[in-house]
Amino acid sequence: MKRKVIMLLSVVALCVLFAGTALAENKDYVVDNADILTDSEEAELEQKAAEVSQRQGLDIVLLTVNSLEGKTVANYADDFYFFNGYGQGESSDGVIMTVAMDDRKWGIETTGYGITALTDYGMDLMDEAIVPYLGDGDYVKAFRKFIEMTDDYVTRARNGSPVDTYDEDAANKSFPWGIRAAISAAIGLLAGFLGTGSMKSKLKTVYSLTAAEDNIINQSLFLNKEASRDLFLYNNIVQVPIATDNNNGGNSSGGSTTHVSSSGMTHGGHSGNF
């Protein structure tokens, strides 16, 4: 009797194992419920996500929906990820990017090793790189960028150098060359303006003019009383750049902020509008 019970349990275990393997092999990494991708785009992203997921040992899931049905992006994505059996290994390692069309919201949720690889700072960089594509309606480029950056982040984390706090190389990858050049030029102009102001403050020959005629350069202005008009020989226009402060990005002191979903799983995440 005991032997039969052991054999039965072995058969059940094998069935569960094969079922799990079949589920893993047949899982859809791209679920386009909002139908915002063409068939060819969906096939391309499915192939890319599957390849990186299998190579990195971490599921990369892309989800589009019309409505979040009153939930937050985090709650909706967490439930979808859990109840559809995503995640690899005992910690259900993986990441999911969700785009909700009617709500104009998007988000990233991480689980298991995904929390380690995609830090708060890393996801801030993803936001800066991905949201412009979402805003322009170029969803396939947004998803491509997400897969590409996730692959890079996981590789860095496994090599002991996760993208955390300020990482110059990762920041350069998230910003196009043109934007980096514009920022550098603006910083250069601001530095030059401040330097000129500092030098001017040190001049010893500067003095105040008390009368209007003190501003007239000799022989540059003649008053014709008979014609009752003024004749200006020349003028000089000086343009001064105005520095602006644009700080709409988040900043992280390091690591990943986590929360617990309704299923009891721990997740990291980042969300916003587009």
Description:
The strands form two sheets. Strands 1-2-3-4-8-7 form a six-stranded mixed sheet, with helices on both faces. The protein is built from eight helices and eight strands, in the order αβαβαββαααααββββ. With 274 residues, the chain is α/β, with parallel strands linked by helices. It has a domain at 27-177 and 254-273: Diaminopimelate Epimerase, Chain A, domain 1, CATH 3.10.310. It has helices at 2-26, 39-56, 73-83, 113-117, 120-135, 139-158, 168-174, 177-201; strands at 30-32, 59-65, 94-100, 105-111, 221-224, 229-232, 258-260, 266-273.
Helix content: 40-55%
Widest sheet: strand order? Answer: 1-2-3-4-8-7
Separate helix tally: 8
**Describe the biggest sheet?**
6 strands, mixed
Alpha carbon gyration radius: 30 Å
Q: Give the termini separation.
A: 63 Å
Query: Which segments are poorly predicted (pLDDT under 50) over 5 or more consecutive residues?
Result: 4-24, 226-252
Topology record:
Blueprint: H1 2-26, E1 30-32, H2 39-56, E2 59-65, H3 73-83, E3 94-100, E4 105-111, H4 113-117, H5 120-135, H6 139-158, H7 168-174, H8 177-201, E5 221-224, E6 229-232, E7 258-260, E8 266-273
Helix pairs in contact: 2-6, 5-6
Structural features:
single chain; alpha/beta; Diaminopimelate Epimerase, Chain A, domain 1; 8 helices; 8 strands; globular
TL;DR of this structure?
The protein has 274 residues and is of the alpha/beta class. The chain is 46% helix and 16% strand.
